[in-house]
Amino acid sequence: MVDRGASALSLPDDWPAHPDPILALNRMGSFDWDLDSGLFHMDARAHEVFDVRPDEFDDNPMSLAVRFPRAEAHRLDALVAQAIKDGSENYGTYFRLRCRDGTLRWTHTQGYIRRDGTGRPRRIIGIVRDATQEMGELEARREQAAQDEVRRRQTNVVQLTTAALAHARTVQDVIDVLKDTHGLTHLGATSLVMGLVEAGRIRLIAEGPAGSFVPGTDITRIDEPYPMSEAVRTLTPRFIESPEEFADRYPILWPHITGLNITSAAYLPLIAEARPIGAMGLLYSDRRGFTPEDRNVLIALGSSIAQSLQRAMLYEQQKDLATGLQQAMLPRTIPSVPGADVAVRYRAAGAEGSLPRDIGGDWYDLIPLPGGTPSGGGRVGAVIGDVQGHDTHAAAVMGQLRIVLRAYAAEGHTPATVMARASVFLHELDTDRFATCLYAEADLATGVVQVVRAGHIDPLVRHADGSCRRVTVEGGLPLGLSAEFGQLDYPVATLELDPGGTLLLCTDGLVEQPGVDLDEGMQTLTDLIAVGPADVWELADRLIDVAEERAGDDDVALLLLRRRALDTPQSGGRLQQHVAPGDPEALTGARHMIRAAVGAWGARERSDEIELVADELITNALMHTEGAAIVTLRVLTGTDRRMRVEVEDSSSALPRRREAGESGVSGRGLLLVDLLSDVWGVEARGGGKCVWSEFVVGGADLS
To answer: Any idea which of 179-193, 275-289, 467-481 has the lowest mean pLDDT?
Structure first.
């Protein structure tokens, strides 16, 4: 190299006859090259550097040619010529000399060009020194720097791969990270294979690139002569450093992968908790052999990958368990209900990539109820609920609560009684969980729906014309809390579901959105239903798709019940209620049912009379018999339109009129029934009887 910045030294004309002692102390030799005469004078130390004796050198530069490899001589000549030509004052460079024993020695020279007044070069005065140690140290530093860079890159590989694997939740996520183009680049490999240990065999779960699959290796035994089998069997890596070694060690496998141009391979056991869970193979096409550093890095990577893989496998096991538990707690099938189309859906929170904790307490149920008309429509109870929490305990509580709700409803209790008893059950279950719930009891022949709500969101109704509205239901406290605070009153709301209308019950996961209040969320859902498909199953799919797109953190349970349009005219409406003895809530529920139904069926002008007579008949049945009473309210059509109240009990004893004294508190019941009813009577029913009363009512025929 040419040093253009240094100034020429102020040296005596006879230099190097008396070299500076500093040069000698630094083991430097000096020379003086007279460009006019061509003579090249050197001191004794310079002779040592060039490895020539004084009697072998005649001051002719060409005599030194034997000491210069040809390439070095050309480079040095060009360097000096260029320095003279461009007016430089000095030059310097490292070059190699060939010693008399044939070895090469690194040498350094620095020359200073002396010019006359016209700028013409006259002399070159300089120094030479043995630079072998210096260049050796420089080379050592370069090698160290290269090794440091390799270590840095290797550490970076571990860090990058580990960071990417930290986000992998499933086994496929782990595979995707490793098979990703950047992942393989970080690993330096061109192809990857991976297998999991299952029941003494290795099942291949990843292979690449496309078309590299070896037939018969999708499942292999651990004792077979394959490199992955060896890695698992011995718990030690298998490093294959050349194609020849691969062909020699694994003659069964090698013929199948010769087309991949494999030059080396590393097969690593994937060990977690001191046991092999699988093995991974990295195949290379651009390298031979593995340094100790390479092996250490790959072993470290194998450990990191094994931990991620075990975590992913555990996650999938927990998710399968959670999903299985959730599905076991939900109804396996939804019963067919005459007069209705029913669609149910369930979506676990964060279904893609969520943690297994997302098993929740959301549930739905559909309960066939006694009564209804076989051809025109059944009676059915629809339930939607959500137990507090997202864990297996919430799911377990949900399963128990679903069972008791179904039992209470099937026994014929009123909706309010069903909810109150479920709250008491949850309170006595010795759990700190509460639950929200909505229970709707529908008579599909008449379209009358009775709804009670325990801290849950309101139901929605979509009409046959596609319009949708939120049904505001006065609710009670959530189940468990209402019993704890002694507030077991659950008001009953009654609505009419016209033929073609759909009742929608859902949990709040379908409504709630971050930053959006509940009312706004309900309105958004209402608008979505209004423009959704008319088909109840397609509508359910659409709503769940929306929940998937939002990827919310809460479960979604959904139940849609559509009342079918009746194929043939029916003979009026019919509702039925079971009233147990000693159950004032059931009696209150029956009164609510009668009042609501009378109003819904257009007989509001006689509602007080009908309710009073029904209350009297129910009270008599409960007081004078030991069993329960079954209350039936129906509309009869004919020459006139009548509403009929029937109270059935298990006693065969007929009611009789009694005259009440002036101070009597009983004996007036049948007198009241006779006074208010248009007609009444008693019928024998099996082992019991039915007392009935009819009222002529106005309004349009329900048929």
So the answer is: 179-193
Confidence band for 385, pLDDT divided at 50, 70 and 90: very high
> Scanning the structure block, which residue is given the tokens 């190097």?
16
Q: Please tell me the distance from the alpha carbon of residue 507 to that of residue 25, in angstroms, as a whole number.
A: 93
Residue 684 is given by DSSP the state E
Task: Find out whether 94 and 103 touch, Cβ atoms under 8 Å.
Answer: no
pTM over 0.70: no
State both tokens at 113.
Answer: 């060009």
Give the residues across from 206 on adjacent strands.
Answer: 194
Question: In 180-250, where does DSSP find H-type helix?
Answer: 181-187, 227-234, 243-249
Mean confidence (pLDDT) of the chain: 82
Strand partners, 351: none
Question: What is the pLDDT, as a whole number, of residue 352?
Answer: 46
> Which ranges constitute the DSSP H helices of 551-677?
584-600, 607-624, 669-676
* Predicted local distance difference test score (pLDDT) of residue 241: 92
Distance (Å, whole) CA 108 – CA 96 = 8
Distances (CA, A) of 32 to 82, 357, 582: 19, 87, 130
Could you tell me if 240 and 227 are in contact, meaning their C-beta atoms sit under 8 angstroms apart?
yes
Confidence of residue 699 (pLDDT cuts 50, 70, 90): low
Nearest-angstrom CA–CA distance, 366 and 568: 25
In angstroms, rounded to a whole number, what is the distance separating the alpha carbons of residues 461 and 468? 6
Amino acid letter, 460: L
Mean predicted confidence (pLDDT) in 157-182:
76
Cβ distance 424 to 490 under 8 Å? no
Q: Which of 43-57, 338-352, 653-667 has the lowest mean pLDDT?
A: 653-667
Q: In this structure, what token pair is assigned to residue 221?
A: 């035994």
Cβ proximity of 690 and 696 under 8 Å: no
3-class secondary structure, 406:
helix
Q: pLDDT value at position 631?
A: 87
List CB contacts of 700: < 8 A, sequence separation 6 or more: 602
pLDDT band at 686 (very low <50, low <70, confident <90, very high): low
What values do phi and psi take at 493, rounded to 5?
-105, 140
> What six digits make up the tokens of 633?
């309210």
Residue 365 in 3-state DSSP?
Answer: strand
DSSP state of 564: P
